[in-house]
Design a protein that fits this description.
By secondary structure, the protein is mainly alpha-helical. Helix 1 crosses helix 6. The protein is 65% helix and 3% strand. The protein has seven helices and two strands, in the order αβααβαααα. It has one domain. Strands 1-2 form a two-stranded parallel ribbon.
């Protein structure tokens, strides 16, 4: 399932603009999770965190920057706390920095739209 999420987000970063909601991710990646059930939503959060940590450790942008809670303006606290764990800065400061998330999304798109990077790491 992690592989499907990662593949979907890479494809999304190459072909779409903006961000994708949790619900759309679950439906389009055919994950079969019910986000109304807390442990299933938590499972998705854990997968997103695992993918992002692996990407970050490999020197690539965290793919979870593309996923947001539907109806929210951006990312939740957990995303910024994950960024803090990855050494990007103190989570409250990151959350208040309007350019931080935009920059991550832009880096993600640029990386995955680069054909040699896509061919090598997708």
């Amino acid at each position: 399932m992690i592989g499907r999420v990662r593949t979907y987000l890479i494809r999304y970063s190459r072909q779409q603009s903006g961000t994708v909601s949790y619900l759309t991710l679950v439906q389009e990646a055919e994950l079969g999770l019910n986000l109304e059930i807390s442990h299933e939503k938590s499972r998705l959060n854990d997968m997103l965190a695992e993918i992002s940590v692996a990407e970050h450790e490999a020197g690539r942008p965290p793919l979870s920057c593309l996923v947001k809670v539907q109806g929210s303006k951006g990312q939740g606290d957990n995303f910024y706390k994950l960024c803090e764990k990855m050494g990007m800065g103190e989570w409250r400061s990151l959350k208040q920095d309007e350019d931080f998330l935009k920059k991550l999304i832009q880096e993600c798109r640029e990386f995955w739209r680069d054909e040699p990077s896509f061919q090598k790491f997708a």
